[in-house]
Amino acid sequence: MLAALLALAGCREVRVKTFTQGTTTVLGGDQVAVVRSERGLRRYGLRAPIDFRGEFGVILLMGPHTRSGFKQIIESIRATERRVRVVAFEDPPANGGEPSNPYRTYTLWIIPNTVYRPGIRVKVVTPGNDPIASTVLP
């Protein structure tokens, strides 16, 4: 799992936990979602031990896919006081996968509320700098 250090508030370093990676059957397209409640997390078909009194979640969802075996690779995370840039891609199955019901891959990060700043832009791009998804913290 990826453990990243973000410097969001001045030069303060904050440990961000990559809680889990996997798949969800909640359909849609590529998306970055900020979740601040258990209800918000369930909307994406996920469960995680996030203490929403002191933490929030950021989910990168990619897909949908109809062949099994896709997984996300997070190449890097870089942050400033105004933006977070994630370089990511999906690794297709080496054998082409098997037909499956539609699903999306996801990575869930758990982040302390102390670094939550409304207006921070989260942008996800491919290694070739093509946009995948983005959001602004509400």
Write up this protein.
The protein has 138 residues and is mainly beta. It has one domain. The chain is built from 1 helix and 9 strands, in the order βββαββββββ. The chain has one helix at 38-42, and strands spanning 3-9, 12-24, 31-35, 55-67, 71-79, 83-91, 99-112, 121-125, 131-136. It has a 5-stranded antiparallel β-sheet with strand order 1-2-7-4-3. Strand 8 and strand 9 (131-136) form a beta hairpin. The longest helix is centred in the first third of the chain and has 5 residues, at 38-42. The model is unreliable at 1-13 (pLDDT under 50).
Number of helices: 1
Low-confidence stretches: 1-13
Mean pLDDT rating: 88
Number of domains: 1
- Tell me the strand order in the biggest sheet: 1-2-7-4-3
Q: How many E-type strands?
A: 9
Give the % helix.
under 10%
- Assembly state: single chain
Radius of gyration: 15 Å
Reported for the largest beta sheet, the result is:
5 strands, antiparallel
Report how far apart the termini are.
Answer: 27 Å
Could you state the order of secondary-structure elements as H and E? EEEHEEEEEE
Q: Outline, from the CA principal axes?
A: globular
Strand content: over 45%
From the helix content, strand content and strand pairing, which structural class follows?
Answer: mainly beta
